[in-house]
TrEMBL record:
It is found in: Cytoplasm. Keywords: Chaperone, Cytoplasm, Stress response. GO terms for biological process: protein folding. The gene is grpE. It comes from Fusobacterium periodonticum ATCC 33693. This is Protein GrpE. Residues 62-74 have a biased composition (Basic residues). The keyword Chaperone applies. InterPro entries: GrpE (IPR000740), GrpE_CC (IPR013805), GrpE_head (IPR009012).
């Protein structure tokens, strides 16, 4: 549209120039009418050519503009379709990943439940050997009435149990010396000539730690003067 306006302005300027030229020519007595007419005709021909070019340009601009807009519109539609396809693909990928994660979570939860259910399987399997030894010792004592042999059998079982506990990181809490509330549980106080103030006098129940953690404090009595 801007080019069309410029061409129209040029045409108007040409027409004004022709009119001015005519007025000046009529006043000039030395110029022949034939020369004047020829020049005027040339200018008019040029003006007509300019008008025709302007018309053709405007026509091309209008039709070309529609074509351009059509191309841009078609390109825009293609881009929209492509974006919609990409969004649909991402949506499907998200739903698939979400389903995979849910299945993974369920599988891990089942594995955790399975581990909880059979967490003590190893220690129970080890204790079964001690149970077998107890049963053998009892059976042997019933047949022979030999309590010394029974005692030896029980001592062997106790050693076996302690070995199992040590293998699992279980250690007996020391009860020598002063009372320590982190490891000992005082159930009473008593006077003692052999012990100092706040020292442990008696052990009523042994305590144990497992890999550094107190799983059962030692139950003791404490000396008070």
């Amino acid at each position: 549209m801007l080019v069309g306006k410029l061409i129209n302005s040029l045409i108007q300027w040409k027409e004004k120039k022709i009119k001015k030229f005519r007025r000046q020519s009529m006043q000039d007595k030395d110029i022949k009418d034939e020369v004047l007419e020829e020049d005027i005709n040339k200018e008019e021909v040029k003006t007509d050519e300019v008008k025709e070019e302007a018309h053709e340009h405007e026509h091309e601009h209008k039709h070309g503009g529609h074509t351009c807009c059509g191309k841009h519109g078609h390109k825009h539609e293609e881009e929209v379709k492509q974006l919609k396809a990409e969004i649909e693909t991402l949506k499907n990928d998200y739903l698939r990943k979400q389903a995979e994660f849910q299945n993974f979570t369920k599988r891990k939860m089942n594995e955790v439940e399975e581990l909880k259910k059979f967490a003590s399987e190893k220690i129970i399997t080890q204790l079964l050997g001690s149970l077998d030894n107890f049963e053998r010792a009892i059976e042997a004592s019933n047949e022979s009435k030999d309590f010394d042999s029974l005692l030896q059998g029980v001592e062997m079982i106790v050693r076996n149990l302690k070995d199992i506990m040590t293998g699992e990181g279980v250690e007996e809490i020391s009860t020598e010396g002063a009372f320590n509330p982190e490891y000992h549980h005082a159930v009473g106080v008593e006077a003692s000539e052999d012990k100092n103030e706040d020292e442990i006098v008696k052990v009523l129940q042994k305590g144990y730690t497992m890999k550094g953690k107190v799983i059962r404090p030692a139950m003791v009595t404490v000396c008070k003067k």
